[in-house]
Design brief:
Elements lengths: L4 H13 L16 E7 L21 E4 L5 E4 L2 E4 L3 E2 L8 E10 L8 E14 L5 E2 L4 E4 L1
Antiparallel strand pairs: 1-2, 1-6, 3-4, 5-8, 6-7, 7-9
Length: 141
C-alpha cells in the first residue's frame, strides 16, 4: 500500500525537523538535536553506522542540526541546506565514498537510519577535504 503525498512529507518532517504528526507520532520528550553524517565505501544498508565506513587519517562523522536550518523538505524529498565538509585526509589514502549514511552516533556502531548512494562519489586521497556539496545527490537505497 502506498503513502499519500501529505503523509510522505509529514514523515520527512518528523525525521528531519522533529515535527509531530498529530494522532500518529509525537516527538520524544528529549529528541535528537543533531544527526551524524557518515561516508561509506560499500553499501551499509544491512548494518550500522560503522558498516563499510570510510577509514582515512583525520576522518570523523559530521553533525548536522535536526532543524529547518540544517535540512529542507520539498515535495517529500529531504536535502541538506548547506555543503557538508568532512575532515581533511591527513595521511596516505586512496578510496572512494560511494554512499552516505545518517545516524544517531558521533562514533562507533550507532543506529543507522538512512542510507543513500552519493552522486558523484567522493574520491579521497592525501590532502583532500571530502564534501557533500549543494549539487551532490544522495539517492535513498
Amino acid at each position: 500500500m502506498g503513502k499519500s503525498a501529505a503523509f510522505k512529507n509529514d514523515i520527512q518532517e518528523l525525521i528531519f525537523f522533529g515535527t509531530a504528526i498529530p494522532g500518529i507520532a509525537q516527538n520524544h520528550a528529549s529528541p535528537a538535536t543533531v544527526y551524524w553524517l557518515s561516508l561509506h565505501v560499500t553499501d551499509p544498508t544491512a548494518g550500522n553506522q560503522a558498516t563499510g565506513e570510510v577509514s582515512y587519517p583525520g576522518y570523523g562523522r559530521v553533525a548536522v542540526v535536526r532543524t529547518t536550518s540544517g535540512w529542507e523538505v520539498v515535495d517529500n524529498v529531504a536535502g541538506l541546506l548547506n555543503n557538508v565538509d568532512f575532515p581533511e585526509c591527513t595521511g596516505a589514502a586512496s578510496l572512494s565514498a560511494a554512499y552516505a549514511g545518517i545516524g544517531t552516533s558521533e562514533t562507533g556502531t550507532g543506529y543507522l537510519m538512512l542510507v543513500g548512494a552519493l552522486n558523484p562519489a567522493i574520491a579521497i586521497s592525501l590532502g583532500t577535504t571530502p564534501r557533500i556539496g549543494d549539487t551532490s545527490t544522495i539517492t535513498e537505497i
